[in-house]
Amino acid sequence: MIKTFRGKMADTSIDTISLHTNNGSTGYRIKKLSIIDGAPGTAEIELVCKVYSTPQTTADGLIDFSDNTLLAVGYYTESANVAYPGFQTVIFDNMTFNQDIYVTAVDVASSGETNYYIELEQVKLDLGENTVATLKDIRNKAVP
Q1: d(C-alpha 119, C-alpha 106), whole Å
Q2: Cβ pair 54, 16 in contact under 8 A
Q3: Antiparallel, parallel or unpaired: β 2-9 and 114-124
Q4: What kind and span of H or E run contains 93?
Q5: Are 25 and 31 in contact (CB under 8 A)?
Q6: Do the Cβ atoms of 33 and 49 come closer than 8 Å?
Q7: Would you say residue 144 has pLDDT above 60?
Q8: pLDDT per residue as tens digits for the range 68-122
Q9: By residue range, what is the domain housing residue 102?
Q10: Number of domains in the chain
């Protein structure tokens, strides 16, 4: 089963997509991530949209693939000049997770809004997979 989520985010904002369940037996994998400007063709924009497995306190345009909580990154650039069409790059991990995910959006060129669309594949987790997914989530949480 595929579940879809979409939203419109102001510059430097963070959205939470609620996926957790009481028993953790439902897992998800990202199948698609698409982003586009809130007002296409009207300004110079460079959008960076990131999806994390842990809560985020700030949204920025820096990409660090050594961060094991980073699930996906989308980069979209567009010029107001018709001669330069939009360009999008999307990279996502095939990791299975069973907890909430967090989406950040930044326009590093100006302060435009970001529209995002995420497709998640829903999978049934057996007890072992459930335990592994939950332990990964616990391990990635910051210890106070």
Answers
A1: 20
A2: no
A3: antiparallel
A4: none
A5: no
A6: yes
A7: no
A8: 899 999 999 988 776 666 788 999 988 888 889 999 999 999 888 999 999 999 9
A9: 2-140
A10: 1
The helix (run of H) or strand (run of E) holding residue 29 is strand 26-37
Which secondary structure element, helix H or strand E, spans residue 21, and what is its range?
none
Q: Which residue in 116, 128, 101, 138 sits closest to 20, CA to CA?
A: 101
Q: What is the DSSP string of 48-88?
A: EEEEESS--S---S---TT-TTEEEEEEEEE-SSTTS--EE
Q: Which amino acid is at 75?
A: Y
Query: In residues, how long is the chain?
Result: 144
pLDDT band per the 50, 70, 90 thresholds, residue 143: very low
Pick from 125, 122, 124, 94: nearest CA to 3: 122
pTM: 0.86
The domain that contains 33 carries what CATH number? 2.60.120
